[in-house]
Amino acid sequence: MKNWWKAFLGAFILIGLIAWGWWRFAPYSFHGMVMQSPEPAPDFTLLSKDGPVSLSDFRGKYVLLYFGYTFCPDVCPATLANLAQALHQIGRGAERVQVIMVSVDPERDTPEKIGEYVAHFDSSFIGLSGDPKDIARIASLYGIFYEKEEVAGAAGYLVTHTASVRVIDPEGRLKLIWPFGATPDEIAQDLKFLLRR
Amino acid sequence: MRRKRFVFLLLLLALLLTACGGKKGGLRVEGAWGRPSPKMAMAGAFYMTIYNDGAQDDRLISAASPACGTVELHESYMTPEGAMGMRPVAGGIPVPAKGKAELKVGGLHIMCIDVKEGFEVGKKVPLTLHFEKGGDLSVEVEIRQEAP
Predict the structure, then answer these.
(1) B55 partner at 20 to 30 Å CA-CA among A22, A134, A157, B88?
(2) ipTM value of the model?
(3) B1, pLDDT greater than 60
(4) What are phi and psi of A129, to 5 degrees?
């Protein structure tokens, strides 16, 4: 009788180990473009509403880096709202994630303005602006394209820009790029996977 | 007698409801929504599906709202290089007969420029749509975090 009990316990532990191994080591496919050999993400310093902020200030955290502008009613709010919702989904893990939006419209976006704008989506989000020349240099280092387009109407001009989100790992390497349109669920799944490593 | 009166009241209620449901001629609007935006935001977007149950093609040519300084019709698009751009829609948004026009994230949208007061979740923003043939249609845009 006792042997039966032992066999049962053994099987139970074995199944548990297999489940844990699967959870820990199973192949995972990300919802964005994965950098096979992550390169160091170029460091930069720009202005937040509370003063200068550098990318390297966030070593130890995953940084979700997005380039956009506040006079952007569709694509940028959709992306920031999706990021905010994903952070909400991952709960406490969100403490190890920092969302940073860099303005590609520094002429209209002051550090105060973009700071207030991003905080509207999540109080932890950081908005950065600065010298247009610095921003142009940083954007090109990250493969971000942006260009002003003069339009008729009240907008004056709009900015066409790369709308993907770059994920920088806690060691400061560019790890992953989510395309525009990645859903909160997809973002949350990827972050959960990254955070349990 | 009582029953007749009840049926009459129901009919009246149904009539009133159809009258209020953002419907005009063959045109009706469903799922009008927009994201919350702070007062300092220069612009916000409204999304909806416009149905044309009529037999005549129509076109949304402009829109107006007391909550916005200016309202324009815009479209987001992806450049061949993969960047996202936005442009005013020239000539309005067609709403084909027995068809629909979908205004959604990353595509066609109504742009509210110079948001006069912040849009908080739950707020209903009045919006009047001007159609080429169907005339004016008043709708309420519900402010919410995600598409209904």
Answers:
(1) B88
(2) 0.78
(3) no
(4) -140, -170
